[in-house]
Amino acid sequence: xxxxxxxxxxxxxxxxxxxxxxxxxxxxxxxxxxxxxxxxxxxxxxxxxxxxxxxxxxxxxxxxxxxxxxxxxxxxxxxxxxxxxxxxxxxxxxxxxxxxxxxxxxxxxxxxxxxxxxxxxxxxxxxxxxxxxxxxxxxxxxxxxxxxxxxxxxxxxxxxxxxxxxxxxxxxxxxxxxxxxxxxxxxxxxxxxxxxxxxxxxxxxxxxxxxxxxxxxxxxxxxxxxxxxxxxx
Amino acid sequence: xxxxxxxxxxxxxxxxxxxxxxxxxxxxxxxxxxxxxxxxxxxxxxxxxxxxxxxxxxxxxxxxxxxxxxxxxxxxxxxxxxxxxxxxxxxxxxxxxxxxxxxxxxxxxxxxxxxxxxxxxxxx
Lengths: 233, 124
Prior knowledge:
The structure holds 2 protein chains of 2 kinds. Chain A has helices at residues 18-28, 45-51, 65-78, 98-106, 128-145, 161-167, 178-186, 210-229, and strands at residues 5-11, 33-39, 55-59, 83-86, 112-116, 157-160, 191-195. Chain A is α/β, with parallel strands linked by helices. In chain A, strands 3-2-1-4-6-5-7 form a 7-stranded mixed sheet, with helices on both faces. Chain B is mainly α. Chain B has a domain at 6-87. Chain B is 87% helix and 0% strand. Chain B is built from 4 helices and no strands. Chain B has helices at 6-27, 33-51, 53-63, 68-123. In chain B, helix 1 (6-27) runs antiparallel to helix 2 (33-51), helix 2 packs antiparallel against helix 4 (68-123) and helix 3 crosses helix 4. Classes of the chains: A alpha/beta, B mainly alpha. At the A-B interface, strand 3 and helix 3 of A face helix 4 of B.
């Protein structure tokens, strides 16, 4: 039996890049369903997505990328999906890698697969501050779990049903990165990285704005520590 | 009657006025009883410290503050901090409640629209 796969795309003011992303997903994986979570957009994101023929759930207010994903998980659970793939609206993630990302989860080798820019040379070059942050948090994860996850900030992941069931009730609001991975691993879920190549965003605004650049390391260090000492529910 | 310094009188009167205002806010339902509790305790303690010189002096000596006014300020500051922390906790809770509500609303709206479309399709 083939698993039912749902691609969840959190979108906040992404009317410019969304049609291209949706067309690409449809072209490379026509059989998977797509849910766009319109996270309180002020532009025509929801209408644009509906016009492409995908399902849309609209938040009345902006909840952040983690909040949008959690809605996707809730929706997936209520509609009996087996696997959720998280994919950015901005065109950073090439849906051509969907199959490679899904393979280990479908085969049952892991519960969460992470599309990673760093497991093999994928030619990704980030600005120095991003690189420093990525290095720091993959170090934090290595310290916490005893084994490395190189790309903690990757927003291109596939989650198995048992992970979705947990995440639909408990998911980080703002940055679902290192602390989430630590918490999931401590719950006994198996994580695996799959090499992917990511592109530059095509349009719109990154979730990681200047103000958040200061808050991000503080929050994620604290949350990582909490994920480590908190009793996994 | 002990001698009350001018600072003490001002502090105590200020505390009493604030307490009365808090109670008035509760009466007009602008402030819930729950939130008024900390305020009433805080203003009450400050007022007592202001009016009772022996108590104020005793606390100042015992805790080793440099002056009576420092004691009053220390209590006031302690209450302000308690209040701020309490509000931060409340606000965190409200934020996550609000998130959950927004999410459930979005999911319900999706479901209503789906059902409505199915109904339209069936009646046609």
